[in-house]
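In response to a reviewer's request, we include the raw inputs and outputs for one of the modeled complexes. The three entities were modeled together in a single run.
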Amino acid sequence: MQAFEYANPSTLQEAVALLAPQRGQTDVLAGGTDLISLMKDYIHTPKRLVNIKNIQELEGIRASAGGLRIGALVTMDELARNAEVRASYKALADAAAGIPSPQIRHMGTVGGDLCQRPRCWYFRGGFGLLATDNGKPLVPDGENHYHAIFGGGPAYFVSASSLGPALVAMGARVKLVSAKGSREVAVKSFFVAPKDENTREIVLRPDEILSEILVPAPAVHSATYEVRQKEALDWPLAAASVALTMKGSVVAGAKVVMGHVAPIPWEAAAAEKALAGKTITAASAEAAGKAAVEDAQPLSRNAYKVQLASVAVKRALLEAVKGKA
Amino acid sequence: MANTPDYSWPPMDQRKVIGQPYKRVDGPAKASGRAKYSSDYLSRDLLFGAYQTCPHAHARVLSVDTSEAESTKGVMAVHVAAPAGTEIQWAGAEIAAVAATSTEIAWDAVRKIKVQYEVLPHLVNETDLSKAGARAKAAGERLTGDPDKAFQEAEVTSEGHYGIPVINHVCLETHGSVTQWKGQGDDSQLQCWVSTQDVTHYAGSLAPNLKVPAANIHVRQDHVGGGFGSKFSPDAWGEVAARLSQKAGGRPVKLFLDRATDQKIAGNRPSAYGWIKIGGKRDGTITAWESRTWGTGGFTGGGSPPLPYIITGIPNQRMNHTAVSTNIGPSRAWRAPNNQQASYMTCGAVEDFAAKAGLDPLEVFKINARYTPEARRDTYLFHFDKAAELAGWKKLWHPRGESGPGPMKRGLGIGFNAWAGLGHQSQCRVTLHADGSVNVDIGTQDLGTGTRTIILQVAAETLGLPIGAIKLAIGSNDLPPDSASGGSTTVGGVSSSTRKASMNALAKLYELAAQTLGTTADQLEAAEGRIRVKGTPAKSITWQAACRRIPASGVISEIGETNPRNPMGLMAGGVAGVQMADVSVDIETGVVKVNRYVAVQDCGLIINPRLAESVCYGAISQGISTALYEQRFMDGQTGRMLNPNMEFYKLAGIGDIGDIVVHLDIRPENDKRGVVGLGEPPAVAICAAIGNAVANAIGVRVPNIPMTPEHVLAALEGRTV
Amino acid sequence: MRGVGIGGGALGTGLLEKNAGAGTTPASVVGPGAVPITLHINGKPVTLTVEPRVTLSNALREHLGMTGSKRVCDRGTCGGCTVIMNGKTVYSCSVLAIDAQGKNIETIEGLAAPGQLHPISQAFWNNDGQQCGYCTSGFVMAMKGFLDEHPNPTVEEVKHGLGGNLCRCGAYMGIRKAAMEAAKAIQQGGKHG
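The model returned the following structure tokens for the whole complex.
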């Protein structure tokens, strides 16, 4: 880990003033579960680290009729345990609780979950976000077992965010604050599939801090299903979050978003269309799962993930309506 | 002159300490965090070491410029391990090392070492033999009987592919040492705090390269954080730590590999892939075997699995093996080298033959037990039935693929194991003092198998004392020499030497006590803290009273030695074992879960059943991890290992192993063989049993370990991976 | 899934201007050289001087000689370095020491007085939930954090509650039993904490 200056502001205003506009100069430290490892591997080499954990205004979950406000510093553990979230925003609670390590849930924050870097082993090995060696993309002919099945490149990593798919499904926004002011961005637009090495996978600028997540009033039924091989700490192989608005027992509107299958949370428009006007049954859920992966473009070693993504969608749908017939 | 004592173990029903489930004596130290491992060493003058390693799988070093590192504040020594001209054969190979006043400064400094390479062509993957070219070397054909004729006459034939990849040891304490080198040449004094499976021979391995007398190298290890076959020698790291210390003016240097480097270069189990064909009769009797296999163990090629495993007596066999040289870190022994691969391939082929013949594999394994070595044949037969009983085989087994409706499919599978496990050469010294206190000294090591506890149980049993009355020292080469803890040989070695040394010391004590008790030494026994006349327990003196007769100017100090060529009935080699896995497979996701795992383990005299069971639980947990999760990903393009970590090199956690049932086959006929090591045998058959259980559950063979969703779904869809 | 700093990425290099953000003087900025910090470990304040980049794990092991917690994966996946911070288990390899100031840090060294065993350590011993022992300290602390929140767990809860730790020797069967026994022992008045 390269040596760095350490700043410990107590207000958001102070914090953003400490950030540099150029990429690579400063990093924001919250839970540290990803950033410290990135720094140990010299993938991030900031000159200054701005610790935001002592900024009170970034804490807390507030529920109101209009929706949910989640401070960036809320840990995954707090989110998973919050009664309001569990009752009305199940897809979010499922995703947070799904992280198998208590230590990660205790340390990791919701803001960090959205801003963490991809786990792509080429990226972590120093070959950049697009994983190239002397201009040659390494993923298509390489060990792409855990890589994207959607998007078609040139970025093949998968978004590692646990909450991203659920937040996209729920139509959430994030608030991004800089010294110049603040802006709100839909979570859907927060994630981007970079086309070149100079673009990051999120729209957060180097001098901005993600301060809170705003989730609109909940859909009636939501759930997240992750396909995990291990019970112990591990990444999902594929995941899906769904949010349904119902008219009686019939789906009036569906949002279906898959995780760990693309550089961004991947919206399954075909599945959403397939569900409209249907009741959720094993058959309609399976059909939606199949529709969700119609356009999948698996790589040489990850065809199996197409099936997993399809099953994740099916199971998330069935989970969302479980006991709520 | 004293007669040679009768060293044989006391009869089963007369043992007081041996055979009892004592808790491990170093348990409190470990469970309270107070146990000190060599990697915990800390002193005011300690320097912290780090390596720069090669990013290329095959390259020639053109230049190494250490000037900037050397001038970094806090850097006290730099050592170039691979000077210009060195040909590197695997990524992760050590180029240069530094020692600095902090870990952080050491990290900084190694990154300032500038190395230029000429990158050369590499081969890092061997799964596709057709791409290995000249790197594949045929190891020759072995022929028994007339396999062609036997296959022609066979009533049933089956064939299949089976593969088991290179895996990493992942010792939690990485490889390395803290080494301090003071003085020069013959006046050198080296102190080494090491992480090793072989305390006794560390100095002798290190001495020639450093050109210092082995007698001047003092080796110490209280605890070791895992070895599993990968920590037998000082390695280059021990030598480099010494050189850094010398350059730094004799300050101790801590040089433990970082996790990524450890996984790249400090432990690879050879892979094995292959095609196997079996022919036989409708009743399940195998008559013909043919196999073509290959594998890699790194640059120097790999071990060849002993096929067919255990059922070696199949009358007609043809075997070919090809060793592939790859640019990956060299292979190291892994808990039963080559046996896990051989067990997986053989048991898989037998299961597939049974399925083809429409037979219950339990019956097929039993009918072919005729081909197992005669000494353990009855044991295998007994174990097949015992394991079946514990696994609920009769109730739960179903013909392959007939698992009922729904996505969750349950299946059962069988694997078997064998291992030698005869005790290694060992010396123990037992010293009795006039105040009654006792030292037991052996230059051995406790890998977590419970070696300390076992030695104390043997000494306590023999001397008739409580365990707490004995002071045990291990983990130093100042102590009487022991051997490497490998091959499941430690328990046999140390128990025999301890028994003998204790008896030898007692013989001396009896001579002193005999005068007091008015009898002869051969009439005495030690029990319950007393020396007493055999058959007349009332006629006795306390242990302390007997020891008071030791002249104040001296001690009784006796050596006992284990000679593997003359086990004297104290120890033996050769165990069998049968295991059965009960798994559930989600055929929609390909996720495999172990429900229950049953192991029936052959054994000899068990000194401590609690610890013996623990070793079996551990071996099986580790095996489940291998069977379901572990694989090392090598990138063919860059030649690098992509998952040198504990994140994508996946290891089973506490919720991933199901419930394990261990049945130790403790019976008088086994007990009378003496002590047999158990470190390895229970680790052999897990991939076999789980692979077979998955095939039974889902109706098709998943050829390649591990049983990941990728592999399982591909098999279900008829794709090859 | 894991939290990371909530900030922009870092790919470029170059020197950071002092007072990088316009306007405010960053009075709170320290480092990159060593700075004095105070940690509250096992109820006692400890002062040491470390660079901001020194992790809590390295501070404990290499500066304070508290070597119970181990460096194993060093990347926040194996649990060998687990300590409790403000009542919650964390991976000390992924916490900066400077950042742990003002927090109540519990390490295995503080669990029991010399010569004594905490009921959890006792249960590990009783049930042989250890072999080489290198993961044990981390597991003991993970179990302490878990049992503090789940005083009466089921075996299934134990399996999930200790999912952030890995053992290579495979002592899991004993660790499960240890958790159940320790829970009982603590409830029956064994010393807790």
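As requested, we also summarize the result in words. The longest strand of chain C covers residues 35-41. Residues 1-25 of chain C have pLDDT under 50 and may be disordered.
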